[in-house]
Amino acid sequence: MERSPVGSWSGGTTIREFVTKRLACAIGLLALALTATSPARADYAVVQFGDGYCRIWWDSADTPWGVGWTKLVIGLPDHFAARAALDSEIAQDACR
Question: What pLDDT does 49 receive?
Fold first, then answer.
């Protein structure tokens, strides 16, 4: 019967390798948890101006300069979602 080296498991993995793998897994899970709990940044809005023309506004908290505008959709997470919302407003004849 062969004896396994000192400090190793039956599969040939040493204790140091086992601890390192567990530590790497724990760090990865922690990074994933921090990413999942961070708030999403909803920066896009669809703004309609007085003449009926609509535009994607890059900061939903910011307001366009002047008067005669209305925010139709706010809190969109990215430009792709904002484009989909703009296309939807155009399809419903809310925008030109």
Answer: 92
